[in-house]
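Annex B. Sample input.
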Amino acid sequence: MDLIRIILAVLLPPLGVFMQVGFGLHFWINILLTLLGYFPGIVHAIYVIVKYK
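Annex B, continued. Sample output.
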């Protein structure tokens, strides 16, 4: 299941975070990072998916 979330995180980072933690603080941080730059959003999304198993 983590592999699917990581693939979604690469395609659309907020969706991968949402599937892992829901509408929490990390979701909103990820939206902000994705708007500021696509790559920081991907890095944060993968971090959240790996950390919060």
